[in-house]
Amino acid sequence: MKDRNVEQAIECLKSALGDKVTINETVRKQHGHDESWFDTSAPDAVCFAETVEDVSLVVKTCNEYGVPVIPYGAGSGVAGLINAVKGGVSLDLGRMDQILEVRPEDADCTVQAGVTRKQLNQYLRDTGLFFTVDPGADATLGGMAATRASGTNTVRYGTMRENVLTMKVVLPSGEIIETGSRARKSASSYDLTHLFIGSEGTLGTIVELTVKLHGIPAATSTAVVQFSSVAAAVDSVVMALQMSVPVARLELADETLVKAMNDYSDLGLQVSTCLFVEFHGTEGGVQEAAEIFREICEDEGAIGFSWTADAEETSRLWRARHEAAWAFMAMRPNTRNFSTDVCVPISALADCIEETRKDVAENLDLTAAIAGHVGDGNFHVAILVDPSIPEEKKRVSAFYDRLVVRALEAGGTCSGEHGVGMQKLEYVKTEFGPSAIRLMQAIKDAIDPKGIMNPGKKIPAPEE
Q1: Element (H, E) at 251
Q2: Could you give the CA distance from residue 135 to residue 156 in angstroms, rounded to a whole number?
Q3: By CB neighbour count within 10 A (0-12 exposed, 13-18 middle, 19+ buried), where does 129 fall?
Q4: Does the domain at residues 4-92 carry the CATH identifier 3.30.930.10?
Q5: At residue 463, does pLDDT exceed 80?
Q6: Alpha-carbon span 53 to 48, nearest angstrom
């Protein structure tokens, strides 16, 4: 039975927004889960915003009645970011998909929050520029900013943190603010832009973004390198970074994932630990970089190396990498993919991955794979689990506890890019400690005193 305040809020929203508001059960369930293994927590209603004013009206109304608001982008997260754990209104920004202005001379552009990365890059094709942050999924830029996303290009171009200049944000009161300017640097007042980046919808709703663009490289080449061990692959990455080899992408896939990709995408690779490497630059530059990288890998014991500058072959390889999650899930149908990530200093990466692989082999007894954006110390563990079998969930949870402890002891973090959501609340306590958590809660209380913005996410509940 709905709370009377929720009913009144929905009635007000329907009166103001008409068919942009729905309480259809199927639509609500679609908005009550992401790609994580958490059960669906459906909102009480879904609002499809089409303008900044729509967003302001929804948030202001919900704030008046004390009703939760859960901003929704593409639903592609894996940490339970959009589950409506306390009911309320899912605020879908997918219809706000206008590219408002492209400024080639400044290498930036302004877009609405519902624009996806593929949509933007398709639009930019004739400008000679592209947007670099590539998390794999065709996520919305608003969602990517809210989760501080990164991805395959991070080693050269940075994460969303480095690529967002300013944003327009609707506060929990319904007020609309600009967080900064288009200037490439500023020492003016508090850095509000980076306060909202990574806030996971708990402080406000991102409705517009101005992001950096980069020139499309004159030439691109891709290398695939096989290794007999993960340690050798990671050691090669560390050496390449220390020698400043100009790589744009550095992706690791262990033998389990390579087999899955072979079966799913017909890659025909040798089943072994692989590095997928991409070089950007001039034709001569990418060839030289590939040769230097080959020498480094051979010194570390690589057992195979191939590279190509063919655009079609390069596209095929990276498409397979982006489809790796689906390829992995096909190895055990009718299960869920428990996917998580940690990030550690580069110097600790090889040991952390090797210890994790040993843990998987000795304690998990489930199909698992490791992949990673190893150029920045970020790696992922994916596990196929049947949520209906309590013992499997118990083993996965215990394994995840050990993984996070391992990363934190190495000077790392419980989340390199997936975010906190519902999945990592307890680990945030361990990573930051009570004083830092109290400061975060004070910021949250100051901006969102009624606690309506995406409750139950990002910040652990205060200690009683």
Answers
A1: strand 247-253
A2: 14
A3: buried
A4: no
A5: no
A6: 12
Q: Which CATH class is domain 99-215?
A: alpha beta
Q: Look-up: residue for tokens 């489930």?
A: 366
A 10 A CB-CB count for 164 gives 25
- Residue 97 structure tokens: 């998909």
| pLDDT tens figures, 256-276 | 999 999 999 999 999 999 999
DSSP letter (8 states) at residue 18: G
Q: What is the CA radius of gyration of the chain?
A: 22
Q: Measuring CA to CA, how many Å separate 282 from each of 129, 138, 220? A: 16, 28, 8
Token pair, residue 101, equals 């202005």
Rounded distance between C-alpha atoms, residue 63 and residue 60, angstroms: 5
Cα 390–chain centre separation: 28
Q: How far apart are CA 356 and CA 368, in angstroms?
A: 11
- Mean pLDDT within 222-228: 95
Q: Which position has the higher pLDDT, 388 or 200?
A: 200
DSSP per residue over 413-464, as a string? BS-SSS--TTTTHHHHHHHHHHHHHHHHHHHHHHH-TT--BSTTSSSPPPP-
Q: How confident is the model at residue 464 (pLDDT cuts 50, 70, 90)?
A: very low
At 82 the three-state DSSP class reads coil
- Give the whole-angstrom CA distance, residue 177 versus residue 70: 19
Task: Select from 1.20.120.80, 3.30.450.40, 3.30.70.2190, 3.90.660.10 the CATH code of 219-326.
Answer: 3.30.70.2190
